[in-house]
Amino acid sequence: MVSNQTGKFKISSILPSDRVFILEGKPAKAEVIERLTRAVCAGEAKLDYKDVLAQVLKREEGISTTLDTGLSIPHARLEELDAFKAALAVLPQGIEDPSGPHLEIKAMFLFLSPARQAFFQQHLQILAALAEVFKPEFISALSTCQNAQQVLDKIDAQ
Question: Which residue, 44, 50, 66, 103, is the most exposed by fewest CB within 10 angstroms?
């Protein structure tokens, strides 16, 4: 896991530019999760896309991962992984979260973690870093980005 100069987890260390999307319109939450899951699983021979998607959606059914800041963090812990994987969708128009009244999603950060106990503390650190960085003002700033590299530059500047 990569940290910045202050020792905090560096979000961009698990987020390559080909897994960052700016999605116009108002797709359904499940559609965004599906697109992000497909992006993370692409090129990962160990991951079966349909199985991973089912695990992420099952986790979302139990308790929504959408914060009142506008960030949704669907995630799953997978036996097949040896490292963290992530994808991000910026949703400038916002979408409604059907699992929570009055929750609007403006950014969705999907991440997959290795299921082994040795990774659990890092899993929690990622969740904490996301909650700290993705405040409403920051998410609004991401909505003005024109491409994935601009999004990553803003994330790196945090």
Answer: 50
Q: How far is CA 134 from CA 66, 72, 125, 148, in A?
A: 12, 10, 14, 16
Per the rule left: phi > 0, alpha: psi between -120 and 50, beta: everything else, 45 is alpha
Please count the structural domains in the chain: 1
Q: Which helix (H) or strand (E) holds 111?
A: strand 104-114
Residue span of the structural domain in which 55 resides:
14-156
The neighbour count for residue 6, using CB atoms within 10 Å, is: 6
With respect to residue 47, please indicate whether it lies within any of the assigned structural domains.
yes
Which amino acid, one-letter code, is at 13? S
CB atoms within 10 A of CB 43: 8
| pLDDT value of position 2 | 45
Determine, yes or no, domain membership for 9: no
Rounded Cα distance between 138 and 143, Å, is 9
Look at residue 1 and tell me if it is in a domain. Answer: no
pLDDT tens digits, residue range 90-135?
999 999 988 766 789 999 999 999 999 989 999 999 999 999 999 9
